[in-house]
Design brief:
Elements (H helix, E strand, L loop, with lengths): L10 E2 L3 E5 L4 E9 L14 E9 L10 E6 L7 E7 L7 E10 L4 E3 L3 E4 L7 E9 L5 E9 L5 E9 L10 E4 L7 E7 L7 E10 L2 E4 L4 E4 L5 E10 L3 E4 L4 E2 L8 E3 L7 E4 L4 E6 L8 H5 L8 E2 L15 E5 L5 E9 L13 E8 L3
Antiparallel strand pairs: 1-3, 2-3, 3-6, 4-5, 4-7, 7-8, 7-9, 10-11, 11-14, 12-13, 12-15, 15-16, 15-17, 18-27, 19-20, 19-21, 21-22, 22-24, 23-25, 25-26, 26-27
Protein name: Fibronectin type-III domain-containing protein
């Protein structure tokens, strides 16, 4: 009689070598299916428990006589592919590699063997040069190829990031046109934001791997033009305001906010898709455009009640970031906040502010 689970081997397919360099390689494997002999219930060998790569410097590497890279322990639907980097390897050495899979029955299956040899590459020398701003959202970056080496370059350009000071091609990249040659090339980098500092360095993709320039260049695009320069005005109790121009409006749909309507809580009521974020008591003039675009803007009500002091978010000196319903970013500071207006009161309830609004990108 058969046991509940037999050690039949899962079927695996040929490994493919994607890239090889001096001390490593990128390889891709595939699991096709459980062994096709698993067609009788009593001979089921169960799901795949483990799969990956095994390699060695001798042919027919095994789990017992080879280096193992376990890729996963899950049981995804077959067929499925997986790709990994293997390193460190020895220069100028021939390696044999294949996929493996182990199932619940204990059966281990191996795929056909692939072979590759690491090379003794001499890589190109790269540097990143002058950065020229070409628009509000792009820049031209010069890439210098100082020498070509013996590792053929398939593509090259600039990789960049606003957070990673040593950017790689896994961040953002812009590729140069034309064939690599000794000399200087200009690469246009687009989709940038003004006021943000970016870090850039040159890269080149070769059969021996991706190489980078030793030095990294930092650059910042200028802020956009100002649409409405600093403007101070009074927001009257229970009125709508357009923050593109900084004025009272009566046209329905043109208003970005109300400074509280009748009988409601004092505060900012966003309208028509305009969004706001409280930045706190910071220096109004030192708040940059990038601070506005990165703020957590929302359409939520902002409480400005002086009666409910714990909930008040709009004390004198508070800076608020906003984006208008026309898509312009801006900043507003509370210069003076009037008393909460009580029902039937003859005055009170106004707020004095200063705004600055930037032009659209």
């Amino acid at each position: 009689m058969f046991t509940a689970v037999d050690p039949l081997t899962p079927a695996v397919s040929e490994v493919s070598v994607v890239q090889v360099w001096t001390s490593g390689a990128v390889v891709r494997g595939k699991i096709d299916n459980l062994d096709p002999k698993n067609d009788r219930q009593e001979k089921k060998s169960g799901k795949i428990l483990e799969y990956g790569f095994v390699w060695a410097t001798q042919n027919q590497p095994t789990l017992e006589a080879g280096t193992v890279l376990k890729v996963g322990e899950d049981n995804p639907p077959t067929p499925f592919e997986f790709e990994r980097e293997i390193s460190p390897l020895t220069v100028l050495t021939t390696y044999y590699i294949r996929t493996y899979a182990r199932n619940e029955g204990g059966g281990v299956g191996y795929g056909p063997v692939a072979t590759f040899k690491t090379d003794d590459y001499v890589f190109a020398e790269l540097s990143v040069g002058k950065v020229t701003t070409t628009s509000k959202a792009s820049a031209d970056v010069v890439v210098n190829i100082l020498s070509l080496g013996n590792a053929e370059i398939s593509s090259f350009g600039v990789c960049y990031s606003s957070t990673n000071k040593e950017p790689t091609t896994k961040d953002s990249k812009a590729t140069a046109t034309g064939k690599a040659a000794k000399g200087s090339f200009t690469v246009n980098v687009s989709g940038l934001a003004p006021g943000i500092t970016y870090f850039a360095r040159a890269f080149a993709t070769t059969l021996g791997g991706i190489i980078y320039s030793d030095a990294t260049t930092a650059f910042t695009l200028g802020e956009p033009a100002v649409f409405t320069p600093k403007k101070s005005f009074t927001m009257s109790y229970s009125n709508p305001y357009d923050l593109d121009a900084g004025e009272l409006v009566s046209q329905n749909g043109a208003d970005d906010m109300w400074w509280y309507p009748y009988n409601d809580k004092p505060g900012i009521y966003p309208k028509n898709g305009a969004r706001f974020a409280v930045l706190g008591k910071v220096n109004f003039d030192q708040v940059k455009y990038a601070d506005l675009t990165s703020a957590n803007l929302s359409t939520n009500f902002i409480n400005g009640s002086y009666t409910d002091t714990k909930a008040n978010q709009l004390e004198n000196g508070t800076v608020v970031a906003f984006i208008t319903n026309q898509g312009r970013y801006g900043k507003m500071i509370v210069d003076a906040h009037g008393e909460d207006r009580k029902p039937g009161a003859a005055n009170g309830g106004d707020m004095q502010v200063t705004i600055l609004t930037y032009d659209k990108q």
